[in-house]
Design goal:
Elements lengths: L1 E2 L2 H17 L6 E7 L3 H17 L2 E7 L5 H13 L5 E4 L9 H5 L13 H8 L8 H11 L9 E5 L3 H13 L3 E5 L1 H6 L9 E4 L16 E5 L3 E2 L5 E2 L4 H4 L4 E3 L6 H24 L1
Helix pairs in contact: 1-10, 6-10
């Protein structure tokens, strides 16, 4: 397998971001909602802050304890919606149990929704009314494109356990000319032959060792968007990478694959939102 590392793609996007930031009349600003004590969430937010600073984007955190009420979070989001200095808002997921993720995300002004999963923005994307892809599917596609292989007309197997996310990912792939099929990890375990129909596999379901060499065709492109901890505490994806490396094709590693690109795409979206606001104010 030829490994598709995320850093070269992310570096290119960061260079683009810095150029666009220099052309703005104001500094783009991102507000992050962080709830609870999940170590991974705190790490991801710190990485976003670090890259934002490098790119010239201001970043402010709003940190809450895990016993915070939904109303309190929504109240802060409402204030951020009204703050003209804030161009983008994200809620770091997952949220602690007991909080309604959809209600909190949908409290964000759609014009400040960086991740792109506000119900209004998802509906517009699925209807073909906007070209902006939600950030995580965009990062997966950027990694896929970096293989520099022809994609139009290729069969893509999209392994996801969220129908909502799957529909967005399918639309993003179809926009690139791929012929996609969505399947859950549970169903796939009962129908492993579906692997053999795919020239492209995109997996983001958090099931370690789901994809093995025996399952896939030679020269397949495998984009691994799954992130979990194994029994030793090591971060792994959905692919059994040690088993699959001797196969011909392309593989994005975990870690080091989609992660850096996701942050870069997120910050590029903040700049886009700042540009759009500047146009509206002109």
């Amino acid at each position: 397998m030829q490994l598709l590392y995320g850093k070269p793609v992310a570096d290119r996007i960061h260079t683009e971001i810095q150029k666009r930031v220099s052309q703005l009349m104001v500094q783009p600003k991102l507000a992050v909602i962080l709830v609870g004590n999940d170590a991974a969430s705190h790490l991801y937010v710190s990485l976003k802050e670090k890259e934002a600073t490098k790119d010239g984007i201001a970043c402010e955190k709003h940190v809450f304890s895990s016993d915070v009420s939904e109303d309190e979070i929504v109240s802060v989001i409402t204030r951020l919606n009204d703050n003209t200095a804030v161009h983008g808002i994200i809620v770091q997921l997952p949220l602690p149990k007991g909080l309604d993720t959809n209600r909190i995300i949908d409290a964000i002004d759609p014009e400040k929704d960086v991740d792109g999963f506000h119900a209004v923005n998802v509906a517009a994307f699925l209807a073909g009314e906007v070209a902006q892809i939600p950030v995580f599917p965009e990062a997966l596609l950027e990694l896929l494109i970096s293989s520099e292989q022809p994609l139009k007309g290729q069969s893509a197997l999209l392994i996801v356990n969220s129908e909502h996310f799957g529909r967005v990912l399918l639309k993003a792939c179809e926009n690139r000319g791929l012929v996609g099929k969505i399947i859950s990890s549970e169903r796939l375990l009962g129908e492993p032959e579906m692997f053999l129909e795919a020239q492209v596999i995109v997996s983001a379901c958090g099931v370690p060792r789901l994809i093995r060499k025996v399952n896939i065709l030679p020269n397949v492109i495998v984009i691994d968007g799954g992130i979990t901890k194994n029994e030793t505490g090591r971060t792994v994806g959905d692919v059994d990478s040690e088993d699959i490396l001797s196969q011909e094709g392309f593989l994005s590693p975990v870690p080091g694959g989609v992660g850096p690109i996701t942050i870069a795409c997120l910050l590029r979206k903040v700049v886009f939102l700042a540009e759009e606001k500047q146009k509206r104010s002109a």
